[in-house]
Write a structure and sequence with these properties.
A hairpin with a 2-residue loop joins strand 3 and strand 4. It is built from 22 helices and 13 strands. The chain is globular, with a radius of gyration of 25 Å. The strands form 3 sheets. Strands 1-2-13-12-10-11 form a 6-stranded mixed sheet, with helices on both faces. Strands 6-5-7-8-9 form a 5-stranded parallel sheet, sandwiched between helices. Helix 6 crosses helix 12 and helix 14 crosses helix 20. The N and C termini lie far apart (54 Å). The chain is α/β, with parallel strands linked by helices. The structure holds 6-O-phosphono-beta-D-fructofuranose (F6P). The site of 6-O-phosphono-beta-D-fructofuranose has 14 residues, from loops.
Length: 552
């Protein structure tokens, strides 16, 4: 067994105490004052790497804050743990696994060993097979059972086997093949399957069944429904499965047991966490949509950020800065959430993607040594694209009683011909960050002749912190850098809290209970319920409705 890191409780450390006392001074300061006292702040508190520009000047921090946060990172061994991750050590101690999503984008020829084996060679072998398959399919050479070329691709998966592919497909739509139709099925709700297959010809449809374990209830249920739908639409010959199904998994045995030939399987490895897998074979749908070259460009973006995280100085290290700022607000200002606000419709699913990445990683209550964590861990991530969000929940961001730090993400170049509209979009991003930071005071309102009685309602206090992330344009490379930035920021936070960001035991209980309840919902006759009175009554109510449905 891997020996877990044993660190003192955070609140007992001098670095934490120093930050707590510094916070007592900082909470009295405003961004207005910080900017007034340092005219160069907006060009000084910035960092740029891997095609991303981070302006962190509109945070309630000083150079001293950053120095103290860095001292905390040093005391918690963030860099040591980072290096252990990059070396392939089994830092996921509860599952005794290496954590090597960085190997998924390591260039051909590099070397990362797991149990003595260079996994980068394995990665490129799979990438090459994916590229060959994508090339055939995109060229119309991969035909279905009846000889028609495949035109529809349906990816079946859930959690990390869905959120990344969906997000990336949406994000990169502008450079994807529009003559191919991509759909995604995740939920066990039959509506998902029915809607995704609606109007499609089975003879032209390929299913990619994505599941790391190949045991996930939702995915296998949908995959079985897909097989039945496919056979019904292609003449009923079992041989059709080989032309209409491919699998992405670490579990060849279960793939074969399901009936998919392992020759049609693209593998990955237990050292890739589900929520860190969109750049593995789980991204096959992405590669089919944008092509192998653009997929490799995305990997290059990921890798550039990995290298930056591994080697940049702390003061210029984007993931480190973002991770430390997240800890600053979560633990010292008591901010419970972080809003991620992309100013791009194409990034509409990015907040949902980040929810799994951040919350499944850092929603933990035990330290690596099995003690209770003595401070709040992972904040709640949420968000919607701007400008839509502005006409919805931004009111609370500006005038609500809660502090919500925001990440605003924008792009300098439009992807569409309507460049003037892009100017409007970006003007809104910049305006929101300015309004959140500096607000509008009673004096300013009076000077603008606002009615006195309305002033309390119209005042915006400001002092709402934001990070602004800008890239030249949204594309495979910048998407890769952006995702890697958040992956590593999550890592930094987890290392400070000394939790395991790479397991997810909390999701198990619900899965087990659901298995038991499924049998109860479907059982005939009387049940001797072993649940609480609420769950038992609801089960009985559902069973009664089920009996009515079947006329029983
Ligand atoms: O339920 C949580 C989870 O295990 C995620 O961590 C994972 O991404 C998802 O389920 C799907 O798992 P699989 O890829 O094994 O089907």
């Amino acid at each position: 067994m891997n020996t877990p890191r044993s660190l003192p409780p955070l609140q007992a450390t001098p670095e934490w105490a120093a930050l707590a006392s510094h916070h007592r001074r900082m909470r009295e300061l405003t961004l207005q004052q910080l900017f007034a006292g340092d005219p160069a702040r907006g060009t000084r508190m910035v960092a740029e790497a891997a095609g991303l520009y981070l302006d962190y000047s509109k945070n309630i921090i000083t150079d001293e804050t950053l120095r103290l946060l860095q001292a905390l990172a040093d005391a918690r061994g963030v860099a040591v743990r980072r290096d252990a991750m990059f070396r392939g050590e089994k830092i996921n101690s509860t599952e005794e696994r290496a954590v090597l999503h960085v190997a998924l984008r390591a260039p051909r020829g590099s070397r990362i060993l797991v149990d003595g084996r260079n996994v980068v060679e394995d990665v490129h072998e799979v990438l090459d097979r994916m590229a060959a398959f994508a090339g055939r399919l995109r060229a119309g050479e991969w035909c279905g059972h009846t000889g028609k070329p495949i035109r529809n691709i349906i990816s079946i998966g859930i959690g990390g086997s869905d959120l990344g592919p969906v997000m990336a497909y949406e994000a990169l739509k502008a450079c994807s093949r529009r003559d191919l139709c991509f759909r995604f099925i995740s939920n066990v709700d039959p509506a998902d399957f029915v809607e995704a297959t609606q109007g499609l010809d089975a003879a032209e449809t390929l299913f990619i069944v994505c599941s790391k374990t190949f045991t996930t209830l939702e995915t296998l249920t949908n995959a079985r429904a897909a097989r039945a739908w496919c056979l019904a639409g292609t003449g009923g010959d079992e041989a059709a499965v080989a032309r209409h199904f491919v699998a992405v998994s670490t579990n060849a045995q279960e793939v074969a047991r399901f009936g998919i030939d392992t020759a049609n399987m693209f593998g990955f490895w237990d050292w890739v966490g589900g929520r860190y897998s969109m750049d593995s074979a789980i991204g096959l749908s992405t590669m089919l949509a944008i092509g192998p070259d653009a997929f490799r460009d995305m990997l290059a973006g990921f890798h550039a950020m990995d290298e930056h995280f591994r080697s940049a100085e702390p003061g210029a290290n984007l993931p480190l800065l973002m991770g430390l700022l997240a800890v600053w607000y979560n633990n010292f200002f008591g901010a419970q959430t972080v809003a991620v606000l992309p100013y791009s419709r194409y990034l509409g699913r990015f907040p949902a993607y980040l929810q799994q990445l951040t919350m499944e990683s850092n929603g933990k209550h035990a330290t690596l040594a099995g003690q209770a964590v003595d401070v709040p861990t992972g904040p709640i991530y949420w968000g919607e694209p701007g400008t839509d969000g502005q006409h919805s929940f931004y009111q609370l961001l500006h005038q609500g009683t809660r502090l919500v730090p925001c990440d605003l993400i924008g792009f300098e170049q439009p992807l569409q011909a309507l460049a003037g509209q892009h100017d409007l979009l970006m003007a809104n991003l910049l305006a929101q960050a300015e309004a959140l930071a500096f607000g509008r005071s009673a004096e300013q309102l009076r000077a603008a002749h606002a009615a006195e009685w309305l002033i309390p309602h119209r005042v915006c206090e400001g002092n709402r912190p934001t990070n602004i992330l800008m890239a030249e344009r949204l594309g495979p490379r910048s998407l890769g850098s952006l995702v890697a930035l958040y992956e590593h920021s999550v890592f930094v936070q987890g290392a400070i809290w000394n939790i395991n960001s790479f397991d997810q035991w909390g999701v198990e209980l619900g899965k087990q209970l659901a298995q038991q309840i499924i049998t109860e919902l479907q059982a005939e006759g009387d049940l001797r319920s072993r649940h609480d009175s609420s769950t038992s009554a609801l089960i009985e109510r559902y069973r009664a409705a089920r009996r009515r449905r079947s006329g029983g």
